[in-house]
Design brief:
This is Cytochrome c. By secondary structure, the chain is mainly alpha-helical. It has helices at 2-15, 27-49, 57-74, 93-96, 98-118, 123-144. The protein contains six helices and no strands. Helices cover 68% and strands 0% of the residues. The structure holds heme C.
Length: 149
């Protein structure tokens, strides 16, 4: 299990590239867009977990990949000087806690990958894995994001 997980992580990591921002998109726009992207993927996975939708393995993989890639890029998108911008909901506490912040994004990646492994085991396992992943989002928002959307 541990070994399989490490291999899957390595495979996914090689697929991850740094997403360059285009045109007038600011770094803050980019990180908010990637967060919304993770939210969309999360909603899709949640609908499979609660039984309101049926997703095939490829679709689950695609949604997990969206989250893993976004969370990888996001680790680079909260530099000093961008944490007190009025357009951002990020809290300045990120700076002092950057190692913890990055570890939380890696936790999101790890738990997203667990969703991939849970899917063949049925809906109960899937629901458990998806809620585990959601907890990593909420845990970080509580600590490092202003309340509200
Ligand atoms: C390591 C911390 C961290 C993790 C993990 C994290 N977020 Fe966030 N999230 C933030 C911060 C900080 C902001 C505020 C960004 C800003 O406004 O500059 C944010 C903002 C958001 C937003 C608002 C985007 C907007 O349009 O303003 C959404 C939606 C969101 N996150 C969804 C998620 C989801 C879904 C997950 C898990 C799959 C997740 N986040 C995981 C820290 C995190």
């Amino acid at each position: 299990m541990t070994r399989g997980f490490a291999i899957a992580l390595t495979c996914l990591a090689t697929l991850v590239g740094f997403t360059t921002t285009t045109g007038a998109e600011t770094l803050i726009d980019a990180r908010q867009r990637l967060m919304r992207d993770m939210q969309e993927a999360q909603k899709t996975l949640r609908s499979a977990a609660d039984g309101s939708a049926t997703l095939d393995a490829d679709r689950v993989k695609a949604e997990v990949r969206r989250i893993v890639e976004a969370a990888e890029t996001l680790q680079n998108l909260f530099p000093e000087g961008t944490l007190d911008d009025p357009k951002s909901k990020a809290l300045p506490a990120i700076l002092a806690g950057k190692a913890d912040f990055d570890a939380r994004l890696q936790d999101t990646q790890r738990t997203a990958l667990m969703v991939l492994f849970a899917q063949p085991q049925g809906q109960k396992a899937l629901a458990y894995a998806v809620s585990d992943m959601n907890a990593t989002c909420d845990g970080c928002h509580t600590r490092y994001k202003q309340p509200g959307q």
